Every structure is written in C-alpha cells, then in structure tokens.
Amino acid sequence: MNPGIISQAEAETSTDQDDEEKLYCPVCQMYRPPRSHHCKTCGVCVAFKDHHCKYLNNCIGARNYRSFMIFLFSSSTNFFLLAFTSVYMLLSVKNTILSILTLIVISTSSLLFVSIVKQIIPQISFLFHNMTWVESTKLKMQYSQLINKNVPSKYDTGSLYENLKQRLGSNPLLWVFPIPNTTKISSFPINPNYIPWNEFDLGTEASNSNSNRRARNRFLY
After folding, report:
1. Does residue 42 have an active-site annotation?
2. Could you tell me the CA-to-CA distances from 143 to 21, 138, 140, 187 in Å, in that order?
3. pTM value?
4. CA 186 to chain centre
5. What average pLDDT is seen over the chain?
6. Which domain holds residue 88?
C-alpha cells in the first residue's frame, strides 16, 4: 500500500514554515509538506512518515498508518488466541509428538505476540500525543542533553480526538477499516507549550557527543 509518497506535483512549494531548510529534500530536490521525511531505503519522500518497517518492506506514512495499526492489533490478538488455545490443547493431548509440536506453536506464537505488543505500546503513546516514530527519535536525540526531559510534543493539540484525527483520518467511522487514509493535512497547529530544544538551558549536564552527531545526520532530510 502506498504510504503517502510525495510526487513533484504534490510537493509543497511554500517556504513560510518555521524551518524551511529542513523542508527541502536534497535527494528528491523539492520542497515537501511539514512532517514528511525522506526514506533512504525507498528513495522517496513520504508524507507523515512514521518509520520504515523492515518486516513489511514498506514505509509507514499518512496513507497506510491506520492499516498498520489495525494489522498490529489484529495480529497480536490472533497470536494471543493461538497461544491460549494451544495451551488448552496441550493439557488434553496424550501423544508425545503432538505435545512437542504444540509446545513449539505456543512458544512461537507467544514470542510473536510479545514482539508485536512491544511495537504497539509506543505507537499508542505516539497516537495520544500526535507524534511519529521519526519525530520521537529526533526528539530524544535533541533533548538527550537536557536535565529536564519532560518535553511536550510539538504537534500535540491537547485534544485526544484531534490528535487521533490527524493520525488516523478525519472520519472516525473509518478508523477500524484497513483502507488508505485519503485525508490531506496541509498545516499543523503548534503546541503552545512546546519549547525548541535550542532554547533550553543545558545546565551542567555533559554533552553526549558522537552518538548524537550520528543520530543528527540521519535527520538532515
């Protein structure tokens, strides 16, 4: 599913954003909408990019994020039910080979369930605070030197409903259906409580050097 690849025709041409330098993609050579990022793996700019999923071999962005979340919830539920019913079956079978196979099913489904839940937990937080995985990683990198790390999300509207609308689409009735999100958002209100990282006082905390510089290079575009 198309994650929201930005074509030249759809590229944002205005430069009246707060940081126009980061809105220009030197690879695609075009200005792109706010909160979009270039994917080095796919070689394209993706609107509202959350991350590149190596398991699905696809970017997760504006158009397929809702489908991705439905996939996570449905998959975790299926693996949980598979493990639960397999445990019940294990208690009733007498055949040794069948018992071993059932144990393998229980172990595999339990491992997959835990792995998916570990993906769901941060995504729920991102949904509630109107943040993407890319933005969260960038935020942690930028504020890693700060003594006070309780930093609000830049695009958190303060309303859970409005945050969900930006991530899942404007029509709540479609949130449970794995169909492309066609809602296009051209501007994003800035959280009034947001403070840019370079306006914080670093205090006496030591700088985190090489790892931060490497991380920063990942987000130049």
Report:
1. no
2. 20, 9, 5, 25
3. 0.79
4. 19
5. 81
6. 20-218
